[in-house]
Amino acid sequence: MILPQDTIGIIGGGQLGQMMALSAKEMGFVVGILDPTPNCPASQVADWHIQANYDDSKAIEELVTKSDVVTYEFENVDADVLAKCAELGKLPQGLDLLKISQNRKHEKAFLTKLNLPTAAYDIVASQEELIQALDLLGYPSVLKTCSGGYDGKGQVVIKSEADIKEATVLLTLGECVLEKWLTFEKEISVIVSGSSRGQFEVFPIAENRHQNNVLHTSLIPADILGDCESQAKEMAKKIAENLEIKGTITVEMFVTKHGGIIINEMAPRPHNSGHYSIEACNVSQFDLHIRGICGWPLPKVVLHESAVMVNLLGKEADLAKEWIYLKPEWYFHYYGKKEVKDGRKMGHITILSNSLNETLEEINQTNIWK
């Protein structure tokens, strides 16, 4: 076990790293951050900050040397750079999870191996292969880069032959996954935490709504049938058990019209849609991530109250400030980012609720998100 006063090194200094660090500090750990950005959100609450690029092997080595255990807040970390960390036993999440989740080709193969449902797909590396795959999957389909890409980046919807030329630009970046277009009713996420003690705890399922491919709102619990809920949790837990997860992972899924489940993708870390757990549950996704990577036992997750989490993107963060005085029951989170950009996640608000529909209407009436 990693114990209080030991050091946790976090690769990545964004808001997820910040919230990991806050949980770790509450438990008595020393926290170090590696991130290239000065005064990044996580560095503002950590004990020390190595300012360096994520592929800087010397900086990674320094982080590993100074830490008793190492984790990461996002999946775009070069797994090869972390190999030595894993060899030293300081990367409890291991490299398999990272390699699978940062490459859609590997991710699809892994899910298929476990007989878990995904959208029909094909791997393509050229325009000729793309055209052949489209003949099989039909229109519309979605072409996605195998690596990189988030919040809708690195993908193109192909609605007809006229879109093929635009889509082939992605192929210049390397192999891509072509997925058959899915019609679904809801998008959900299931967050699971595991520890080295073989325990696995599943958080209440979040129902997610997006705008411009960026998460806008999460509703907890998701409005889905009981059988659908059980199925989704079992799938996520099967993934966690197979990979012997230590820490927190997220599995994003689609719910079809008839209550079926299709797995979209995995994230080897806490997730934007799980922020509600800070206020709405007895323990947060970040608490269980820290507990899991440190070998602590995991308490059973309890949802105290239904909740709505809504992101503050770009200028929405400033618009929301005037409501701090008017909404004392809302929980405002600001990440400490200096530069405001359109679509950039600047913070979020969590609202505990007895009626999710009434809370959504209350949110709309503020015009923060107009």
Automatic annotation (TrEMBL):
Family according to the record: Belongs to the PurK/PurT family.
Species in which this protein is naturally found: Vagococcus hydrophili
Binding positions (ATP): 104, 144, 149-155, 179-182, 187, 210, 264-265
EC number of the protein: 6.3.4.18
Annotated ranges, domain ATP-grasp: 108-294
Name of the molecule in the record: N5-carboxyaminoimidazole ribonucleotide synthase
Domain of life assignment: Bacteria
Recorded catalytic activity of this chain's protein: 5-amino-1-(5-phospho-beta-D-ribosyl)imidazole + hydrogencarbonate + ATP = 5-carboxyamino-1-(5-phospho-D-ribosyl)imidazole + ADP + phosphate + 2 H(+)
Matching SUPFAM superfamilies: Glutathione synthetase ATP-binding domain-like, PreATP-grasp domain, Rudiment single hybrid motif
Pathway named in the protein's UniProt entry: Purine metabolism; IMP biosynthesis via de novo pathway; 5-amino-1-(5-phospho-D-ribosyl)imidazole-4-carboxylate from 5-amino-1-(5-phospho-D-ribosyl)imidazole (N5-CAIR route): step 1/2
Class in the EC hierarchy, top level: ligase
NCBIfam families attached to this UniProt entry: PRK06019.1-1 (NF004675), PRK06019.1-2 (NF004676), PRK06019.1-5 (NF004679), purK (TIGR01161)
Alphabetic keyword roster: ATP-binding, Ligase, Manganese, Nucleotide-binding, Purine biosynthesis
Gene Ontology biological process terms, A to Z: 'de novo' IMP biosynthetic process
One Gene Ontology CC term in the entry: cytosol
Primary role: Catalyzes the ATP-dependent conversion of 5-aminoimidazole ribonucleotide (AIR) and HCO(3)(-) to N5-carboxyaminoimidazole ribonucleotide (N5-CAIR).
Molecular function per GO: 5-(carboxyamino)imidazole ribonucleotide synthase activity; ATP binding; metal ion binding; phosphoribosylaminoimidazole carboxylase activity
Cofactor(s) the record lists: Mg(2+); Mn(2+)
Pfam families, alphabetized: ATP-grasp, PurK_C, RS_preATP-grasp-like
Subunit-level organization: Homodimer.
Gene it is expressed from: purK
